[in-house]
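Ticket reopened. Same input as before:
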Amino acid sequence: MKLTTALLGAACALSFAPAAFADRGTDGEVKFTFPQAVSIMNPFLSSGTKDVYAASLVLEPLAGFDADGNIIPKLVTEIPTLENGGISADLTSITWKLLPDLKWSDGSPVTADDAVFTAAYCMDPAGGCAQLSKFDSVAKVEAVDASTVKVTFTGPKPNPYTAFVGALSPLLQKAQFAACQGAAAPTCTDPNNMPIGTGPFKVTGFTVNDTVTLAMNENYRDPAKPAFASAVIKGGGDAEGSARAVMETGEFDYAWNTQIPPDSQASMTAAGKGEFVVAFGTLVERIEMNMTDPDPALPEGERATVKHPHPILSDIKVRTALSKAIDRQILSDVGYGAGGMPTCNVIPAPAAWASDNTGCIAQDMEGAKKLLDEAGWVPGADGIREKDGKKLHILYQSTVNPIRQDFQALVKDWWTELGVDVELKAIDPSVFFGGDAGSPDTFQKFYADVEMYANNSDGTDPETYLSQYQCVNAPSPDNQWQGENMNRFCDPAYDAKVKVLSTTVDVAERQKLAKELNDMVTKDSMVVVPLVHRGTLSAHSNTLGGVKINAWDSEMWNVADWFRVK
Amino acid sequence: MLTFTLRRLLLAIPTLLVISLVIFLLVDLAPGSPMSEIPLTVPPDVRRKMIEALGADQPVFFRYFLWLRQFFWVEPVTLFDGWFGTSWAGGEQRILSWQSRAPVFTIIGQRIPQTLTVIGTAYLVGILIALPIGIYSAYRQYSLFDQLGTLIAMIGFSVPTFFSGTLIIIIFAVTLGWFPTKYDTNLHVTDWASFVKQLQQMAMPVMTLGLANAAVISRYMRSSMLDNMGMDYVRTARAKGLTERVVVLKHVLRNSMIPVVTVIALGIPSIFGGAIITENLFGVNGIGAALIGAIHASDLPMVQTLAFIFAVLIVTFNLIADVLYGLLDPRIRYD
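Engineering reply: fixed in the latest deploy. New output:
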């Protein structure tokens, strides 16, 4: 009886997951194509997601996130929590235990010293580390013993899963990067391009902004993985070309970031060689309302600052009317197809953190008109509403991007129907997002009435993201126009709640607070008008198995489990 | 002739210095920031520190003189060291790309071979197609062949490569499945099979660019031939009883080549410059793709260095074209 059960079980396992029993390196090569080519394999010096994702095949953090946003151990025995004592009772430290016998791809052992070094590397003031915020409020990182890493914070830290968690803050090998700390960091071309890691693959060749070739890591901790003997990442071209190479010609197995128009998505899927997968993270395309007056007649230094409230948009009725007039479903369908869905939230995901706010989805043109009437804006002779002899005129800016220009045109139509005179402006993205304090066209300066772009929260916990809407974060001449509160939204009740959030430990309570904060900037005040919850659209070939798209970590987070469907 | 060449070379030095300054200022003053591609989740103070680590916050003239020093001293010495195993450069800072933190000249070195093989072949193919078409079209002016040649040339002239390239991809890669859409840089030609593969992956970019190149050159060839066909010396040659073959190919062609050679020579720097659109479309990691990538990322050292190298090449090939004039036409001498 026992033997039969065991045999049956074995038979079932075999029939369900033949790939799980595939030996290491038996499935040949897996080929990736990225529309933006990989520039560097060191996430700490990278300027974009493309580099972080490519590096995630090689470099690994202590812990990562799975497809649902749950934290999972990678190089450690378990996730430290308050219950298992890994997080100190006063929340000021977290202790990680490394897996036994863990090896770098060169065969040398991974020790706690590597983690201590990685922290010192990123926190070096001269190094220009791009992921410095992952080490925010870290007081020190020490090696308790060879396999125990203790991270101490400057104060209680309710969410300690920042340093060494996720693809943005992986472990570097001390031996390889020892000479690359501080000002020397950018000059270490070889280590930056060919880092030694613990991941399923190791770099064998790197051509800047073109191709990365990788081979399986013989020292990977699971002796049966990865199934692929080698990997190659080819970069460059455009999203359309990448998608075509997977979906129509079948030259590649996986294409990251294939954001293409909905009609092309449909025609490429029809070719039958692959499928599109979407990862919905926290990226939201939104219209931000300017609460201050961007009138060019105001003197420089006072324009678009809290000194002068916006003459039109300070009225919540106007803001609500503008939001009501928009049909978010149409925007999502036209712009993103499968890669988007309408939303009313700034925090649209993970589900446990997202407010159940859906009131804005249905368009309500009549309601919007009524609100403007109530606010005293009545249609003039030319159909444009006016109040006290002033026309309802709105300057609506965004970046140069075909989808955003479509959105601008659609929204302009709806607002014109409402009786608003809309002027559109499109700015080059490198200027708009460039943050140059000397340019009038940055999104921080916000010399317009409303502006549209997309922003997202980093990771699953939105505390940092929500704290951006505090009064002090408003860009102004005093802080060289730096700061993330583009709207100059200022509500003491909001700031107080953010403070409560920063000291709350209980996850359920944090989620409740996050939802309340989300509602305060969206449906309660209409300062932020969310439009579309955007996913990352990627494509993979039908012959590639094991792909589980993930918005909370690298999309290749489980590449060790990928296999060739035979 | 020698003094002329020397004078031109000396004159090129101040010209190039001014060009380098103008390029530097243009690129530097253009709006945009090397940080614009960084996700918005990176906070402003971290961005500021990253800019400081790049040295991008230094005053513009400081950076210009640093670049001059690196371009004219550090890079040549490093190259010399690389050849002869010396260590004169002493680990001095080379020109580093802001985007990839790799030396700009290493990147250029990686990319030149692809550009030269693909764009160079397309140029050569273009010339080989254009010359016979131009010659025959002129010889049989207004014939069916001439009309057809004009039509194809007009198509080559007016259809942009991003359109013709995509069309070629859809026909030859998606529908027929003959050629790959992405150029494989790691392919090394070692045997017949890999050579065939190399030809396959070069076919589509060469077709796209070859059409455009052939269109331009064939028009020049045709009009130049037409100018000469009616000349007195051609009538004389015919009166002497020379065969048509000798008249056209020896007398007319040689004289007609003068302007065409200039056009061809002046087009050579553009081979090194790569083809921005075509390279991007077919995933050829050439110089053009590097340039547009660097422009998108506001990678100033890379853009500046590439633009300046193009300037050097253009000045050089202008000089070469002038010297070639003298060789082809004994009447033109610069003494």
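Chain B touches chain A through 57 residues (CB under 8 Å). Chain B has twelve helices and no strands. Please confirm and we'll close it.
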